[in-house]
Write a structure and sequence with these properties.
Blueprint (H helix, E strand, L loop, with lengths): L13 H7 L41 H9 L14 H4 L1 H5 L40 H6 L24 E6 L11 E6 L5 E6 L3 E6 L2 H4 L13 E4 L4 E6 L12 E6 L4 E5 L5 E5 L13 E4 L5 E6 L2 E6 L8 E4 L1 E2 L2 E2 L4 E6 L5 E6 L4 E5 L5 E4 L8 E6 L5 E6 L4 E6 L5 E7 L10 E3 L5 E4 L5 E6 L10 E3 L3 E4 L5 E6 L5 E6 L11 H5 L4 H11 L5 E5 L23
Parallel strand pairs: 23-27
Antiparallel strand pairs: 1-31, 2-3, 3-4, 4-5, 6-7, 7-8, 8-9, 10-11, 11-12, 12-13, 14-15, 16-17, 17-18, 18-19, 20-21, 21-22, 22-23, 24-25, 25-26, 26-28, 29-30, 30-31
Length: 557
């Protein structure tokens, strides 16, 4: 359990400087100094054996770590920057070189293994790879040989021709409190652990079970969190430091924002507050950020407010920030800024707001570049850029559509994706690292998978049909996250339950009577859980794996 929020403020700026320092040279800047010894004297990660017992540990052997450090474009490594940090850094999160050319050059990377195309990223799908194999040949062997090596996990393509297999999850953790439903889940950038948010205002950190790497699925048990970080009130948003890697403890931190509290930066090894960012409004009153997001190079922290974006320097916690109003002289993007997204290969970021629109802004000064038309029926709750930076996906609350925008023609919607969103709850969606597959849950617990490459290239605002639909949970599937380099999915479920109008206290108390039987179905559909799914080449069937309380496998619709 973490300390109180105030415990992290005395650390000044040093605790967060440590996260940005190791990667400064990649951004053509002088390297920063090491963190102040008074902040984290006990965390010196020189080997696996020296990691504190409470710390999360990277799930890989020493040989694999050495192999990974030797590969500059690996999952944990850095690709040499050629065109600036904002263009190169997002590739480290997805494990692929960004493709900033035209959309016509995209290929189904998610099924194959084209991440080996390191040479400037412009060799084209027909260019020969190392060893003389072509892309098609690489795709043919994408599920073989390297499946047991986490460092080669990118070669394991997602396979949605069949139903994903449930591996394990966590549900007992959320049964101690009534209606302790989850509110999303996010893989760490290095894929070693996963972060969840729930109604009890606690952020939980889970390690990826080691048995998944070795296909020992029969040995899997229910997951338990290794860290619990308690916020003081409702958590509005949370995000990982984009250059986080378990091999460097100084980069292992995340940011969260909650009601009536400053933005906290949490140590992902000890669960303590490293630092706080304190935004103040025009009345010099502390105000809470509704959304938070690190810049791709991790140097800045963007926070969303009503008609305002405040940008903090990650190395300098406190109240100093740059203010970027989204409405100037009654022109611009109104409403509360509810979500952020950064282009993988351009110095551009997108803001979604509860005024049902999205805007594109320049990273340098926050200048408004384009304001997308208001096409959503509800306020935007989530948005994502495609890996090539040409498309933007947006979704809203109480809105059944995810819209795909062509940013080369900002007023053009290429196609829409239909899902069932009947509440104000934030329903996340996610793209696989190649950008081919988009996945989203809905309020009925169904996960839909769309193949975006089947959309017509010219765009006709057509409704794209899902490639696969399966019942992941019996309650709202509000969060979904695709692993950075393995064919793993994480889903989170639950929502606030309201009694039916005809239900009375007497009916709910008498379980054995007919009236109680009528009220039973809403109870049975409560499903507050984090679940991991295997969506790649089949290994041994998880016969001896954990069973969920309902005992029912996912069903394809």
């Amino acid at each position: 359990m973490s300390d109180s929020a105030g415990s992290g403020e005395g650390g000044g700026g040093g605790g967060v400087v440590a996260g940005a320092g190791p990667d400064a040279e990649a951004d053509s800047e002088p390297p920063h100094q090491a963190p102040a010894p008074s902040l984290r004297p006990e965390v010196e990660v020189t080997s696996e054996d020296e990691v504190p017992l409470c710390a999360k540990r990277p799930r890989m052997s020493e040989e694999e770590q050495e192999e990974q450090e030797a590969q500059p474009a690996g999952v944990h490594g850095e690709t040499p920057a050629e065109t600036g940090s904002l263009q190169e850094d997002p590739a480290q999160r997805t494990g692929e070189p960004p493709q900033c050319e035209d959309a016509e050059e995209e290929e189904p990377i998610g099924v194959g293994g084209e991440e080996e195309r390191h040479q400037e990223g412009d060799g084209g799908p027909d260019a020969p790879l190392e060893g003389g194999e072509t892309t098609a040949e690489e795709e043919e062997h994408s599920g073989n040989g390297s499946a047991d090596d986490p460092s080669d996990g990118q070669r394991l393509g997602l396979d949605f021709t069949q139903n994903p297999q449930m591996l394990t999850g966590s549900w007992t953790e959320y049964s101690n409190l009534t209606e302790n439903y989850l509110k999303g889940c996010k893989w760490a950038p290095d894929g070693s652990c996963i972060l969840t948010n729930s109604a009890d205002n606690v952020l939980r950190l889970y390690n990826l079970p080691a048995e998944i790497y070795s296909y020992s699925w029969d040995l899997l048990h229910e997951m338990s969190p290794v860290l619990r970080m308690a916020e003081g009130d409702t958590v509005y948003d949370y995000c990982w430091y984009p250059k986080m890697t378990s091999l460097d403890a100084d980069t292992c931190f995340l940011a969260s924002s909650s009601r009536d509290n400053p933005v906290h930066v949490w140590d992902a090894f000890h669960g303590e507050v490293r630092a706080s960012f304190r935004p103040y409004n025009h009345l010099d009153e502390l105000t809470a950020a509704h959304s938070v997001c690190f810049s791709p190079d991790g140097a800045q922290l963007y926070c969303g407010f009503d008609k305002m974006v405040r940008v903090f320097d990650t190395e300098r916690p406190g109240r100093d920030c740059e203010e970027r109003p989204t409405v100037v002289k009654k022109q611009g993007q109104s409403g509360i800024i509810s979500c952020f997204g950064f282009s993988p290969c351009r110095s551009v970021y997108a803001c979604g707001s509860y005024s049902r629109c999205a805007g594109l802004y320049a990273c340098q000064d926050g200048a408004l570049l384009a304001l997308l038309p208001t096409r959503h029926h509800g306020g935007l709750t989530h948005l994502l850029f495609s890996p090539d930076g040409n498309h933007l996906y947006t979704g809203g609350r109480k809105d059944p559509e995810i819209l795909c925008w062509d940013l080369r023609e900002p007023d053009k919607v290429l196609f829409s994706l239909k899902r069932n969103v009947a509440t104000n709850q934030r329903i996340y969606f996610d793209l696989d690292p190649s950008g081919r597959y988009l996945l989203s849950g809905d309020t009925e617990g169904v996960v839909s998978v769309w193949d975006t490459q089947t959309a017509p290239p010219d765009g006709n605002e057509e409704l794209l049909q899902p490639e696969l639909r399966f019942q992941a949970h019996w309650d709202c599937t509000n969060g979904i996250s695709v692993h950075p380099f393995m064919p793993l999915l994480a889903t989170s479920s639950g929502q606030r339950q309201f009694p039916s109008p005809g239900e009375s206290e007497g009916d709910s108390a008498s379980e054995g009577e007919g009236a109680a039987g009528a009220a039973a179905p809403p109870e049975t559909r409560q499903d507050n859980a984090l679940t991991l799914w295997w969506a790649g080449p089949l290994g041994p069937a998880p016969d001896g794996g954990p069973e969920r309380p309902d005992g029912t496998p996912a069903q394809t619709e």
